[in-house]
Amino acid sequence: MKILITGGAGFIASHVADAYLELGHEVVIVDNLSSGNKANLNPKAKFIEADITNKDLIQAIVREERPEVINHHAAHIQVGYSVKNPQFDAENNIMGLLNIMEAAKEIPVKKVIMAATGGAMYGNKPTPFNEEMKAEPLSPYGISKRAGELYLNYYHELYQIPFISLRYSNV
Ligand SMILES: NC(=O)c1ccc[n+]([C@@H]2O[C@H](COP(=O)([O-])OP(=O)(O)OC[C@H]3O[C@@H](n4cnc5c(N)ncnc54)[C@H](O)[C@@H]3O)[C@@H](O)[C@H]2O)c1
Description:
By secondary structure, this protein is α/β, with parallel strands linked by helices.
């Protein structure tokens, strides 16, 4: 299967890329190297240096590569900075996802997997969190991840694109 991984030069998604390649999948990594590192890139993957906020570029990549699955890990991930600059956070985490999905709906992709957050999804509720709890994020980062889930639900409802959002705890 051909899988496009955003953020695949980063900590988590570089391991996801390795696992996909080990299973025999074809992997295309898109990353702007803002916090990722070329040293994390598996040489068996195709690497495209690109920013998901560059609408024309990322959409051209999705249309050209035509992945069956998109595994979306590219994001701005610092909660503190998201409080200082919510626009930057939303630009990367919400607009970046929409840029991808507007092209993905045309292919259409068979599945989208998104890295959300467990830690920032439930506000200041007492731990432990569980999946039945209401998502009430407080920080712009958590809000951007919840918005991403709601947008993926929208693409599922309108375009029947299956998705899963993984609410990671601190990895
Ligand atoms: N690390 C954790 O504990 C944790 C917890 C919950 C959720 N997550 C989520 O998992 C994902 C990966 O996190 P990580 O810890 O590996 O972080 P990371 O910073 O190592 O990886 C993020 C990758 O995305 C790339 N990136 C960022 N903005 C981009 C953009 N605009 N265009 C293209 N590439 C861009 C970065 O260069 C980097 O390689 C993120 O979506 C994050 O929100 C992480």
